[in-house]
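Q: Please design a sequence for this.
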């Protein structure tokens, strides 16, 4: 339908349109809704930044996401099918995650209710055909799918603990998925359109979220991104194949862990340390791996750049695996899993170093 050059300019235009729109809509929100998401009376809320800032960045994400759905039908009418079960499930799950995050930003919902809604998001994806296919044992794969969705929603939420961290990490994961799309010749796929548009939205949000930030994405943004990243992870990494179409479970497991190592490592580290101290992993604190990078002397902006750099390195390794490794061998798993383990050990060991400031 379009030539390669036309497709490039079309998708590039979509990216910049999403970026400019997000800049404008967040500017409007900053002018008229300065207190949204600020809960001064929430005793359990612990933020790295002591100053109160509005948390409505995720609203722009979701608006752009819905626009991308509509734009795909207009730009690619012959390829689009509005009744694809997977897309209906994605729309339902992200919508539910967004609404739950919106309610939490406005009213501070109960943890059990949030957990149940996260499970429902996983069930929605599962029921509409988005499922991890790694063990080919339905009960195991389906359970892993729901755990992945719930885990990713919580991991992205917990990673949103310093300026720009969740934004740059999410961007790196989306770029890795987009490279997978481009290498397999599926640039005109609806998921590519969604990814490009959401990347533009995150870019526009980063203008306000880079240190010193003027707004947060809030649970509205982190819960939406958590569902979308879980979907992307299942589609392009858990169920990813080589360029020849071969299904290689160890490739799928290794690449998934490499691409998602930062949110997984931070959440695992925080959960282990808090449980060892006898506290709940889900109560806020200043004990994230990002915080410890600050304790050893990095500025907030430098911490964001470190996480962004590590995210891009993982993205590069994902590209190498797809472009230059046609057949996955055991030593490839050793190299990739070893890289993920090194990143985890590095971040975890930061929290165990002596002689640095400890969080209260």
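A: Design:
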């Amino acid at each position: 339908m379009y030539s390669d050059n036309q497709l490039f300019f079309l998708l590039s235009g979509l990216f910049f349109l999403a970026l400019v729109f997000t800049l404008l809509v967040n500017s409007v929100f900053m002018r008229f809704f300065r207190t949204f998401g600020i809960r001064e009376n929430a005793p359990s809320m612990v933020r790295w930044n002591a100053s109160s800032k509005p948390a409505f960045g995720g609203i722009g994400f979701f608006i752009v996401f819905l626009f991308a759905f509509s734009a795909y039908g207009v730009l690619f009418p012959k390829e689009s099918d509005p009744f694809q079960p997977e897309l209906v499930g994605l729309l339902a799950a992200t919508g539910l995650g967004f609404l739950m995050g919106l309610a939490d930003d406005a009213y501070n919902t109960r943890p059990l209710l949030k957990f149940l809604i996260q499970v429902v998001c996983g069930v929605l994806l599962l029921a509409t055909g988005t499922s991890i296919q790694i063990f080919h044992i339905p009960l195991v794969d389906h359970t892993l799918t729901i755990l992945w969705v719930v885990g990713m929603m919580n991991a992205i939420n917990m990673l949103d603990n310093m300026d720009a961290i969740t934004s740059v990490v999410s961007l790196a994961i989306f770029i890795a998925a987009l490279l997978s799309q481009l290498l397999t010749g599926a640039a005109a796929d609806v998921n590519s359109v969604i990814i490009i548009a959401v990347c533009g939205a995150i870019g526009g949000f980063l203008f306000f979220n880079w240190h010193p930030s003027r707004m947060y994405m809030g649970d509205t943004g982190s819960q939406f991104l958590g569902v979308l990243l879980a979907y992307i992870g299942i589609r392009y990494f858990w169920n990813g194949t080589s360029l020849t179409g071969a299904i290689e479970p160890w490739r799928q497991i290794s690449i998934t862990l490499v691409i998602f190592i930062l949110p997984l490592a931070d959440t695992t580290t925080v959960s282990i340390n808090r449980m060892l101290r006898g506290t709940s992993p889900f109560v806020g604190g200043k004990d994230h791996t990002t915080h410890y990078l600050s304790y050893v002397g990095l500025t907030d902006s430098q911490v964001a750049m470190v996480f962004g750099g590590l995210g891009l390195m993982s993205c590069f390794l994902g590209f190498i695996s797809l472009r230059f490794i046609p057949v996955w061998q055991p030593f490839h798993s050793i190299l990739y899993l070893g890289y993920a383990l090194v990143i985890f050990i590095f971040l975890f060991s930061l929290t165990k170093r002596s002689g640095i400031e400890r969080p209260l």
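Q: Thanks. Anything notable?
A: The mean pLDDT is 89. Residues 131 and 202 are 26 Å apart (CA to CA).
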